[in-house]
Design goal:
This protein is of the alpha/beta class. The protein has 20 helices and 18 strands. Strands 1-2-3-18-15-14-9-10-13-12-11 form an 11-stranded mixed beta sheet, sandwiched between helices. Strands 6-5-4-7-8 form a 5-stranded parallel beta sheet, with helices on both faces. β1 and β2 form a beta hairpin. α2 packs antiparallel against α3 and α3 runs parallel beside α5.
Length: 568
């Protein structure tokens, strides 16, 4: 039991905020859906109005100068994604108000070879096809969901006649601006729960902008915010007015919250005796693999995917739960050396940046200390870490840190696996990722179209067998986070004592309650270069046009968007 001496500052104010949320929890749960839609309208409008200031604040905090190649990432990872997910949630609630359930696209539900369902969720409209040509996405559902009952596994909260309110505590992530606000959107509009968002100290500068975007919900007593360190988080987690906790962060933070710290916490975890008797959902990171299937690649293909992989390594300084951490190549692929050389060349051209996330330099030193063969690409200067490749790791090594721990900085390992044919290699790669790499959040598979055709059903089987919550084919699985109609979260089935990448999913605009994974596929090569590529020369111009497009999709907005993209 905490005493007044060890309680964090502002305890009384936070207690009052929780009391307000509790007093309004049932009212929010039972508020007519049409009224909830108006709150989403306000969030959309204010997301646009605060965007410029929010991005400038992020640039100042991360040391990103005007004109930097990194200038676009806080547009794309902040207001653009937030606007898209909120807009899609608004559409879903409008459909629920009209029919009681989210509306699936005609013909979207398919039966997979194993008898379980897949739902095609992107593209839905001709505008989708034009804005992201060649891309498609589907959500795979768990066993027990059938064509006859799929609607019963959507929007479960809205099927209740007199739902009971609850209070969710969202412990915000410190790396990507849209995570905390969108975790709140999920709690509010999918689960029907009022919400307190505690900002991570790393990006607490976002607070005024999020508070402005959610101002109507704050005014009416449905949202509150809090600031501070671990002591504040611990106090809030233990408060009796908090019913549920959602964490985006590390598995270590999760375990400290659920079981406690030190030897006593470790003992509790071994004995499965949680200190915290509340529902906890989470998204906790990953040692994310990129599997590159050998095939008839041209030099241009190799260059394109060197940029693709470099983007997955370096976006946000490597401080992403879905950053590429292990590149998986075939021992038999004659082009593997050329690919790695081209990757080194791209990384050498990618400007270094401030290691703004706490603990990054210590983590970097630890991983490099374990691997004298590590290749820093560029100099190390005070506060700035070089992109670093750890090549040629033994895939069979036991207790390899690069396989079992998320470095959460700009370090990526590379390993090679046997396989005389692409089919054999891919099967080995799936087993390696499932059995050797920590986490189940996301994986990427890059495959030449001719190789994929030759693989036939074996390729689909590889997608079936990968135990990850999102799989990207040819492109960064971060798209599963960004699309909104897909789900974002770990492979299902983790427990509090084996949490890995977490429990539950977010985004998921169709509100499926038994998601297995999401699959996002794109063309092997894309023209023009995707705006999220770190090598795009006009990404910020595209990002600003994308924000306008996501706020109000229209064919009239496409020419300007396409023109900006072509300049990259």
């Amino acid at each position: 039991m905490e005493t007044a001496l060890d309680a964090p500052p502002a305890t009384e104010a936070m207690a009052r905020d929780l009391a307000v949320l509790r007093a309004n929890a049932d009212r929010w749960a039972r508020l007519p859906v049409a009224e909830k839609v108006r709150y989403l309208d306000a969030i959309l409008q204010r997301t646009e109005s605060v965007a410029e200031g929010q991005v400038r604040a992020a640039h100042a905090a991360k040391g990103i100068a005007p004109g930097s190649p990194w200038e676009a990432e806080d547009w794309l990872g902040g207001p653009v994604i937030q606007a898209r997910v909120v807009r899609l949630m608004r559409r879903t609630l409008t459909q629920i108000a009209a029919t009681g359930k989210p509306t699936l696209p005609d013909g979207a539900v398919r039966t997979r070879p194993n008898g379980r369902l897949a739902v095609d969720v992107f593209p839905e409209t001709p505008l989708d096809r034009v804005s992201l040509p060649g891309f498609r996405a589907e959500v795979w559902l768990q066993e027990g969901v059938s064509r006859d009952n799929v609607a019963a596994h959507q929007a479960a909260f809205y099927a209740q006649s007199q739902p009971k309110g609850a209070v969710t505590l969202v412990l915000g992530a410190g790396n990507v601006a849209s995570i905390g606000p969108l975790d709140m959107v999920d709690a509010l509009f999918v689960d029907g729960q009022v919400c307190l968002l505690k900002f991570n100290p790393v990006n607490a500068y976002l607070g005024p902008f999020v508070e402005e975007a959610f101002a109507d919900l704050i005014r009416d007593g449905f949202v509150r915010t809090a600031y501070g360190g671990a002591d504040v988080g611990a106090w809030l987690c233990g408060h009796p007015e908090v019913d549920r906790i959602h964490i985006t962060g590390s598995d270590k933070t999760h375990d400290a919250i659920v079981f406690g710290g030190g030897a006593e916490g470790a003992k509790r975890k071994r004995q499965n005796r949680p200190r915290l008797k509340k529902k906890v959902t989470s998204e906790l990171g990953n040692v994310s693999p990129v599997i590159i299937v050998p095939g008839p690649w041209t030099t241009s293909d190799l260059r394109f995917h060197a940029e693709n992989v470099a983007t997955q390594m370096t976006n946000n300084g490597g401080f992403n739960c879905n950053a590429c951490k292990v590149i998986v190549l075939s021992e038999a692929w004659p082009q593997k050396r050329l690919f790695l050389d081209l990757l080194r060349g791209v990384l050498a051209r990618v400007p270094q940046r401030r290691a703004y996330y706490p603990g990054a330099e210590g983590r970097y030193d630890r991983f490099v200390g374990l691997h004298p063969e590590a290749e820093p690409i560029g100099p190390r200067t005070p506060g700035v870490l070089p992109w670093t490749l750890v090549p040629g790791l033994d895939a069979g090594a036991e207790d390899e840190a690069c396989f079992t721990e998320e470095s959460f900085c700009g370090i990526t390992a590379q390993t090679a696996l046997p396989g005389d044919t692409p089919r054999d290699f891919l099967a080995n790669a799936v087993d390696f990722c499932n059995d050797k790499l920590w986490g189940t959040l996301n994986a990427c598979v890059i495959v030449h179209p001719r190789t994929r055709e030759a693989l036939g059903p074996a390729f689909h089987q590889a997608l079936e067998d990968l135990r990850y919550g999102s799989v990207g084919v040819n492109h960064w699985p971060a798209m599963s986070y960004a699309l909104g109609v897909t789900s974002w979260g770990a492979w299902p089935g983790h427990t509090l004592t084996d949490i890995q990448s977490g429990i539950g999913v977010v985004h998921n605009a169709f509100m499926f309650d038994k998601v297995e994974k999401s699959i996002i596929e794109g063309p092997f090569r894309v023209r023009p270069r995707p705006p999220w590529f770190v090598t795009h020369r006009n990404a910020v111009g595209v990002a600003k046009r994308l924000l306008a497009f996501e706020l109000e999709p229209s064919y009239l907005r496409l020419p300007g968007l396409i023109w900006q993209a072509l300049r990259g």
